[in-house]
Write a structure and sequence with these properties.
homodimer, alpha+beta, BirA Bifunctional Protein, domain 2, about 475 residues, 15 helices, eleven-stranded mixed β-sheet, 23 strands, Translation Initiation Factor IF3, Rossmann fold, 3 domains
Chain lengths: ~475, ~475
């Protein structure tokens, strides 16, 4: 490593040394976000927003392919609507922003800035749903939401964030459950095939479920510091909202019935997960399918005749082949500086092209994840790069999976639990009796929460890791973001 | 017209009889929007939202092609930021929603729900812009905004609406002006080539310009009831915001200078314009490029062998060719009912296919705008339909242009002005001295406002239509939404 490179990379705190500062350094220095003058609200800069646009595009295609349509519901929710579902209001009221005045006028009824939209959407569904013919109703919206969080961190927990929220209504309990599971499946498939992040999928405990749901299902990812991150949730709402919002339909059998509902969402925090799962000491490492720039072309000695022209011709060829490509022809920066900058920005593949390469009708490709450097012919270059991007994706996924497996530990008693959590970090797999009291005392003693009861249940022991009484479920515990 | 058809169409009020009720009937009955429990806030239903998605896609491509990037800025703006630019706060403070509490806590400083984002964006630009190398800065955001309007109407004027706002910073006054005009040009080209709506482009008067701008440029469309609608604006902000937010850069010449800025936006009200420019007595007439469904296939006698199979094969063929196509194979509705419903929903082309058509290897195509019915071979059907969609687009544009021309009247004195406005409706072209007093008294006497001073100036008279003194500008006046 040259002196220059060392100096440059040194701007990012080592993640072994201070993971939290490493994270902050990356998000600021790679221009993903910036802090704003509004407490807890971030500005998403173009490089970060483009990742979100790619996430949106991939998810939106999947939502539409599974029969969902997008709609848009109001930002403001009258206080009386929020209060209809008792658990829901209890969960959300402490963390909402209140609009009390419009212009100079004090409002007769306060408005909540939506923290989630079940209430306003159910108020509409009650109007729209009359007959079994109106079901299933499968809507989604892309929007901003606000939660008055005390401690915030860009992407992970912010006062305002961007998300999508799906809201569906069905004629039967079975269909609602099927939808709930189907959309969790979509999230999991998307996370693995687009973000290259392996997920543990399972059910939340009663304590951890969504305020107002019958049950909540989740996908949980492990970050490199050993903390878990809830990446997406899907809720079976049962008839809780249908009953308080009076969403009834005339069924085929001539009877009036309440609908069964689901809701599900993912947020801009997925970008935080990408950073903390794949990032390394040099900065961001972006999964190819959401990277704003998939290939950066750095021409070498590009003042020499023919280099820039050739680079430009290849640039057009790659762009036409559907690759997100950037040609860095700045003459204000050295080649080494450019290499470092694009590595820090996590671009999956770097393409170098210089006079000697042109002579040999070849280019140099460098993988961001493994730093592997290969010489490839110019012929069929787009295909070669696409195949390398697939390899990067696979490599990232496998590395993340290996990392998670190395940091998933069984605990058969509380000593093992604490030892694993303190000294080995990561997920703790342990048996649980199903009682709140044990869940509470584990949280109190260790700081770890029940992330989920995974669908793939194992039976490690017959006894609960905490109280020693009969175990009911295998649980993944972890400290979490 | 069959009895059934008459009954069905009768649900929509005649636009000659009551334009306003016709508009409301259309937006509700075609499922574009619904009213919500929040005063002045609409729910955009999937059929309306899909039009917005198509508008977004077309505009976003144009923004990116002209070098702009998307970002996302906070929804909330601290009161002190809003107050920095004097004209801006005067213009917006009376119509903002105020957040005063977060959870149980009363905020030390009130927050405004963004009515527009110049202030929060300028606060960030001041941090991001240091050198001429950082310029031009060309950002856009797609988001929701809130204005506390007293009288609201879906799409046209709502408490909350969706829009895009471009915000740019430049090194010179000339570049800022060039950008301002370029983006107005993008809006105009988009309106004409995508929405099929002809626009009058020009400059706003001092009274009508954006709060905080040096000058505002606008595109104005004429609705079928003779009222104008401001469809998009582009503002040259000069250095007004740069000075109060201290956005300075070190120029090539070594001097610190304030940047020059522009901002520009269009909103969901464009959907209102589409309805009021193209709609007819049967309902919506959608321009093909934004229609959620471009071709609806209605199989005739589809219980007969082979009909549905053939229709499905054609459906797949048309879909694969990139057309937005829907196959209406409901057996719960009659063919006539389907024809009426899809006409009401404004689908540009209807395709009928029955046993006789299949025998003859043909289908029937019916244009929504002219009701022209033609028999065409099944070979190259996608191309035939694409060409028909182009014809529909052209037809809509020409009809709208003819309508506007028939409703654009010259007035040489106030009697003519009033007579034209009352009896002929539409745009009134008249000469104006350039003084507020005349603009005010025209508004007071007639209800018409100065829509713009068109770029294509003519000289109708030497005297002002109002005071008779020396005329400075040709102005398009109209009553407006």
């Amino acid at each position: 490593m040259s002196k220059k490179k060392q100096e440059f990379v040194a701007h990012i705190t080592s993640k072994e040394e201070d993971f939290s500062r490493w994270y902050t350094d990356i998000i600021l220095k790679t221009d993903l976000v910036d802090y704003s003058p509004v407490r807890g609200s971030m500005v998403i800069k173009p490089y970060g927003y483009e990742i979100w646009e790619n996430i949106q595009k991939e998810l939106d295609e999947r939502f539409k392919a599974t029969g969902h349509k997008n709609a848009y519901f109001p930002l403001f929710i009258p206080e009386s609507l929020l209060q209809k579902e008792a658990d829901h209001v209890e969960g959300f009221a402490p963390e909402v922003a209140w609009v009390t005045h419009g212009g100079d006028e004090k409002l007769a009824e306060r408005l909540v800035v939506r923290p989630t939209s079940e209430t306003i959407i159910c108020a509409m569904y009650s109007k729209w749903i009359q007959s079994y013919r109106d079901l299933p109703l499968l809507y989604n919206q892309w929007c901003n939401v606000v939660r008055w969080e005390k401690t915030t961190r860009p992407f992970l927990r912010t006062l305002e964030f961007l998300w999508q929220e799906g809201h569906t209504a069905h004629a039967t309990e079975e269909e609602a459950q099927e939808e709930t599971m189907k959309m969790l499946g979509v999230y999991r498939e998307f996370s693995e095939n687009v973000l290259a992040i392996p997920m543990v999928a399972g059910k939340k405990t009663e304590k951890e479920k969504f305020a107002g749901a019958v049950s909540t299902y989740t996908i949980e990812a492990l970050m490199q510091d050993g903390q878990a991150l809830q990446a997406g949730t899907s809720h079976n709402l049962g008839q809780h909202f249908a009953k308080v919002f009076d969403i009834q339909f005339l069924d085929r059998d001539g009877e009036q019935k309440y609908v069964w509902q689901s809701s599900w969402g993912v947020t801009t925090r997925l970008i935080g997960a990408i950073i903390m799962v794949h990032g390394d000491e040099r900065g961001l490492v972006l999964p190819p399918k959401v990277a704003p720039v998939q290939v950066v072309m750095v021409p070498i000695a590009f003042h020499k005749e023919g280099v820039l022209a050739k680079a430009e011709a290849l640039f057009e060829e790659l762009k036409a082949a559907g690759l997100r490509v950037e040609l860095d022809d700045r003459d204000t920066q050295s080649t080494g500086w450019k290499f470092n900058e694009w590595e820090m920005k996590g671009v999956p593949v770097r393409l170098e092209i210089g006079p000697k390469d042109i002579e040999k009708n070849q280019v140099v490709l460098v993988r961001r994840d493994t730093h592997e450097k290969i010489f490839v012919p110019m012929e069929n270059l787009a295909d070669t790069i696409k195949s390398m991007l697939d390899d990067v994706h696979k490599g990232l996924y496998e590395k993340a999976l290996a990392m998670r497996e190395a940091h998933t530990h069984e605990a058969h008693n509380m000593d093992e639990f604490k030892d694993a959590l303190e000294n080995k970090k990561g997920f703790i797999k342990a048996m649980w009796c199903g009682r709140d009291t044990c869940e509470d005392s584990i949280k109190e003693e260790t700081g770890a929460t029940a992330r989920c009861m995974p669908f793939e249940q194992e039976y490690l022991d017959e006894h609960c890791v905490c109280c020693g009484e009969k175990a009911e479920h295998l649980v993944f515990f972890a400290r979490a973001y």
